[in-house]
Hints:
By secondary structure, this protein is an alpha+beta fold.
Amino acid sequence: MSHSVPKTKVIPSYLWLGTAVVVLFTLAIYWYSFSLPLYWDDTWHYHRIAGPWRTIVLNWRPLSFGAHKLNMLIAGGYYPLAQHIMNTGWHVLNCLLCFGVVYQLTQVRRVLTATFAALLFAAYPLSAEPVLWSNCFNHLLAASLQFGAILTFLLSIKETKWSLHWRILSILLVALAPFANEETIVAGGMLAVILLYRKQLRSHWKILLPYAMVTILAFIAYRLALPRDSRFASTVYTLNEIRLKLMYLVQCFIHPISQAIGALLKNSAPLTQQWVASLFNISGVAMYAYYCSRIGRLRMFLLGLAFYILGALASFIFMPSAYVLGSPRLLYQSALGVAVAWSLPITAQGSTSRQRATCLAVMSFIVVAMAWSSTRYLLYMKRVALDVKTSVIGINESMRDAENPILVINFPSAFADRPYILPLGDYAPIMLPSLDTEDLSDITRLNGLPGKEITNLTVSELKPHQPWKYEVGYSRHTLELSELNSALREYKSVFVGVLADVPRVRPVGGLIAENQAPGASLARYNEQLALLEAAADNTGSDVEVDLTWQCLAPLSEEYQIFIHLIDRDNIMVYGQDVQPLTGMSSLASWKTGDVWRDVRHLTPPAELPAGTYQVVIGLYTISDTQRLNATDADGAPLPNNAFRIGEVTLP
């Protein structure tokens, strides 16, 4: 009598090979991140999670918050390496879940299609930001719960003895997802789309009822925990903002193709122009949809498009336009739809081996192009990290003897040599050294950490044609211009750290004294402002002008200060028109008796001929550009109402 032995289901070796390729490929891209320090947002995030454990219950993202706390406990502190390992590891997990979802959805060449989809998701340039920013772990964790819910749902609709277990796990993941990130409330909608995709399940809509119930309960719990001042308040957008966001979403969807075309052309700059991008993207999506219909994969293309739209829906509706454009991390979970849609060429049934080989070569090139783009981004950020550390050394040296200083760091939102990586979006790649140092080289000591003496005022953007944005310390409080003028009166020394080709820190002045009687002056302007001291010097081609002003009477209008370089023929060859302290201090805010130091840094154009130039200074009314009457120390009128400070010799 023979007994039958139950057969054990063996996982095919090529399935293991596919997952191994995904893991190794993802780690090959992101291993650079292990050597990176913290980002700007990560410092204030550190303060949030440094509190007691009970804050997890009161947090509106308790799962993500708790994971950060646990990582701190294991690592013994908030170390960049520990955070980058956690984020990268979670991204690898999401890539594997993406592999599993596509494997379950496809019927043809399942392993190959799933592998390419996971590689697309891993290398997708818009995935890079949430992986690198420590505090963006909530996007990674939320995506894991959402992708896991989809995968277990697909496994549950198979007739096996484990179907009920998969269904219970799927419902649990849907219920937990909003507690990692509120944008995952759309997980139930993604499952509904799968029902429409699978013909045999369209009549079984009742299986979605438990998902709908837990989603509603999670949404209610989330709304109760949500801070009242959250950005998820009701917002009305203009038609232009809606147009920009729609264009951005379409461009992100087609980014794998536009990135590959940019690599072929070796210049993707034209794709950044709005009208070119719009025409290219809309027509590209239409043509690709037609191609998918020709190979019999239109339904799966529409499934991927639905995943993408649902994943981006919360960000599109609730987030302000600028935040969506500047933060691709918000589209991290929607990248699953991009991976599903653009992995379809692998499923095409070519009639010849040449056609199949061509399809495989094209998809491989797309993946390699995206991987190179993401790697360039990581290498670029590593260089920025080194620049910041160099800048920190300069900050320490400049501020060593300063009394009650205020630090203003100029991090431009776009560096001159920054490669085109993210479609249409633009944000500031600000990075900070590690928190584990004990000396002043730790720039976070300049950001208002408890027990530190130095207070930091950070200027996020210094662009003369745009309103400035001011943030105080790690509190994220944004200052209006009037508040900034009040803040400048509290601190006696103001420094600007500039990240340029050569990072440097330089003083720009500050309030020296108040309630001072009028003193001897070099020049007076309308008997309202007196120039007490002035000196001009140059280091190479850069010119530094050090001014000391006194306010003699309240200013009835807003004035602008100009500094001109005059050649031997008395012709102005270069000028700078800006208010004191690189434009941060408003002249109209000065009080009678104030004495201010105002340091100007001029960079004349390189094509300016070598020679000696006169440096002259004056003021004019902003409303009508009329110069103020200027007199010298003896009260005699000055030619052209401008005071000649001295000469500088340019090489």
